[in-house]
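User: Look at the shape:
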Amino acid sequence: MTYYSVLAVTPTNDDWVADYIGPANKLVAQYGGKYLARTGSHERLEGQGEDSALRIVIEWPSKQAAIDFMNDPEYAPHFKARTAGSKSEHFLIEGKDDLA
């Protein structure tokens, strides 16, 4: 079953960004992930809360693929740098409609 990572990221410094993108791209692809959106072009249509600088959506072929990506030892230093240099939220969403 398809899963989606939905992230809201606001860098608190940009020191990590250049070293993050290449390895993250490689590992996302290695685990069968596909970026559907990585953009600062977004707007809130409903609700309240803190806005983020970036919204990222990644499609995964399975929940396990997303978890394996997050747990990959090669990703660990990049994850640490991203979380230290940003305010981030990451949701993993199952691609199904429970209300259908």
